[in-house]
Structures are given as C-alpha cells and as structure tokens.
Amino acid sequence: MAGWLVRDYSQNDLEAVVRVDTESGTAGEPPLFPLSDAVAALQALHPAVVAVADDVVVGAAVSRVEGDRAWILRVCMAPAWRRRELGSALITALENRLFAGGVRTVHAVLPEGETGAAALCDCDFGARPGLVFFEKRRPVTPQAAGMLSSLGAELPPGGLWQKVAGMHREKRLIERRLVLPLAHPELAAQHGVELPRAVMLFGPPGTGKSTFAHAIASRLGWPLLELFPARLAAEYGLATGLNRRFDEIARLDHVLVFIDEVEEIAGTRCGANATAVGVVNELLKAIVRFRSQDGRLLVCATNNVTTLDSAFLRHGRFDYVLPIGPPDRSARVALWESYLARAGAEADSGALSSASEGFTPADIAHVARTVSQAQFERTFDTGARARPTTDHYLDAIRDTKPTVSAAMAQEFAEQTEKFARL
Ligand SMILES: Nc1ncnc2c1ncn2[C@@H]1O[C@H](COP(=O)(O)OP(=O)(O)OP(=O)(O)O)[C@@H](O)[C@H]1O
Ligand SMILES: [Mg+2]
Predict the structure, then answer these.
(1) Tens-digit pLDDT profile for residues 68-119
(2) What stretch(es) of the chain map to CATH 1.10.8.60?
(3) Is residue 260 within 6 Å of ligand 1 at its C-beta?
(4) Does domain 329-403 have CATH number 3.40.50.720?
(5) Which of 180, 197, 410, 420 has the fewest CB atoms within 10 Å distance of its CB?
(6) Is the pLDDT of residue 366 over 80?
(7) Nearest atom within ligand 1 for CA of residue 334
(8) Nearest CA to ligand 1 atom 25
C-alpha cells in the first residue's frame, strides 16, 4: 500500500501545491521555471496531478502544453515523502494525461542534484548529454522601467557595441577593464578584481566618447542616464541638483550614469568663483557615495582633460582615465567600409583611409553623409541609380577640414602620457 492517491489537480488544491513546492527543493539552484509560471499553468488548467495522503496534498506534478510538446514545470513533494517513489507515480500519472491529450514529447529541465532527477530516469526519460543551457536576462524589471523613465533614463537598444566601427585598441581596453568585470561580477570577485565604478574618457571632439558610453550600456543591458549640468543648475542650482539627482540614482538597481563635457562642472578651482568650488565638492562627494553601490558605472567625458580639477582625477575617484583618440588607419578603414556598404558604393576604403588622416569618426560620418546625399539627389535628377565612387569621396574629403590637426594630435599624445590611467 503506497499510502497516497494520485488524482487530477483541482482549483482548490492551489494553495496546498504552493506550500508543498516551497518545502520541496533540495538543490541550491532555483528551478528553471519560477513558481509564478507553475501557478499560471495551474490557473490556465494545463494538465497537473496531485498526490493526496489522508486528505492532505503531499506532492504535485505540473505541466505546460505547447502544441504537441509539454514541459514539466514542477515535480514537488513534501520532505517526509521523498525516496518513496512518489515522484515516479506523479510523473507517470502526468505523462499518461499528456500523451492521451495528443502530446508527443515531454521535456523537463532540473537543477543538478534536484530530487526529481531519479524519478525521471525511473520513468524512462532520457537525459540529453551535450546540451548546454543558455539564457540571457534583461536586468531591468517593469517596475524599475517606470522609475527610469521618470528620471529620464533610457535603455539603449542592443547591438550598439558591434556598431562601433574600428577603434580596436579602445574597444579592447573598455571591454576588458569595464564591460567584462561588470558583466561577470562573481568571476571578477574570485580573482580579487574590484568592480570599476567610474571612468573618465578624454579626447578631441567627435572621437566617439558619447558613442562609447551608449555602447557600454547597450552591451551590459543597463539603462543609461545622462546628467545635464545646465538643466540641473536651472532647476535647483547645480550643487543641490547634483545631490538630489545622485540620491535618486542610488535607488536604481543598474544604471550607467553619463556626464558629457564634465569640465563644465569639474573645472579647475583656481580662479573659479565660490559656487564652482561648492559644485566640485558636491560632485566629489556624490562620486564617493556612488562608488559604494554595486550595479552602476559613472562615465564622464571631456575634450579638455587639462582643465579638470586635480582633486577630481586623483586615485580613488576614477578607476580609469582612458584616452579616446582619433581613429588610427585600421579604424578609419573599418569606418569607411561600414559607410561604403550602407551607400552601396564600390570605393577603395584603403585610399579613403589614407586621405583622411586626422579625421574623427564624426568627420568621416559627415563626408559619408555628404556623398550619399549628393548621389541620392543625382539619382532623382538623372533617373538612373547613381553610385558613389572613390573620387566622389576623395573630393568630399578634400572639402572637409579634419577636426584633429597635427598640433591637436601632438597635444592629445602629451595628455595621454600625462593623464591616462589604463
Ligand atoms: N567608432 C565609431 N564608429 C561609428 N561611428 C562613430 C564611431 N565613433 C563615433 N561615431 C559617430 O561619430 C559621431 C560623433 O561621435 P560622438 O558624439 O560619440 O563623439 P564625442 O567624442 O562624444 O564628441 P564630443 O567630444 O564632441 O562630445 C556620432 O555620430 C557617432 O555616431
Ligand atoms: Mg560627446
């Protein structure tokens, strides 16, 4: 005499099933399907069975049917009923109902070492060796999304990282120092790596500092919140505004905070007026507070690293001070190729790259847009599809002044020598 009776689940059993489920787990890992999925399946009357002893529910098996497949979402039992073949009885009863209902395949995924595994084997379920279970989670919950939008934060679209053309050296550095530790905090901790909290990007205008900030957020799947000092100043006064904003930011789980042109609020204090001193102090305090929480990164960008207050760049505030320079030759080739492909052009990216020394990604984008627009208009004028050639691009390059002159490149190299902290 087994001591239990297996029968179909009925709506009155819901509370008892939830109770048994919370007592049942034996593995450290949570099950693949959260309890809310199992409850939803029960409420939608997907096949499920319960085991009852003395009118008390002591076990349950819950499924969800999708076409001719079914997932076993749960096999759970009260601890006193383990190792008495109750699991096998529940699975057998459930699979009978599933197969009778037209299901052809039944799947189950269990945490390693979970009780139900032996029962599944007993019921002739075959384990599939060689499969690896992948998953990706979006760290922002719908509730957090409401708070984010009220703060003006946005979740950047996926794939921005891949869209950053060329810039291999900078990408590699940012990926290794920032993205990987933040994306794999446990592994970083095992190596004694402290998570980065704040980074300063510096470089000439248009080299991609803002682009990198968005790409990092996209890669991490974190929302990006840009702080606009001028707006904060207008609303509350800058020092108070910063203080308030960072208080609000502290309530978010994950966030990348971006401050562009940070020299406007963290400029050198000598010669500055009294408010500016208060503002720099407020920002320094905010960074200290910001650093004490997990799941966040502050990215500041500046064109003019030499004018930053020296207290600001001191160790302990910014983990890295990274130069984002004008693209090197290979980065320019990659940038040109991405624009040529978009314009359907058959032009020589090597020649364009050589002719555009000192051009920033923004300059290259400008030339590409000019050529595309001209060809688009030509198509309308002639009635035949115009295609840009190498010469079209070379002409437009000649008409464009590179943002980074030789003198600026030299200056940037000196700043890199003096300020960079990689
Ligand atoms: N590596 C890149 N690949 C493709 N496009 C890029 C790249 N870097 C920058 N761009 C494009 O160039 C333009 C300028 O880049 P961005 O605004 O990021 O520069 P910035 O360094 O923030 O400039 P600023 O110092 O003026 O704020 C943008 O339109 C951006 O999309
Ligand atoms: Mg910018």
Answers:
(1) 999 999 999 999 988 889 999 999 999 999 999 999 999 999 887 777 788 8
(2) 329-403
(3) yes
(4) no
(5) 410
(6) yes
(7) 3
(8) 205
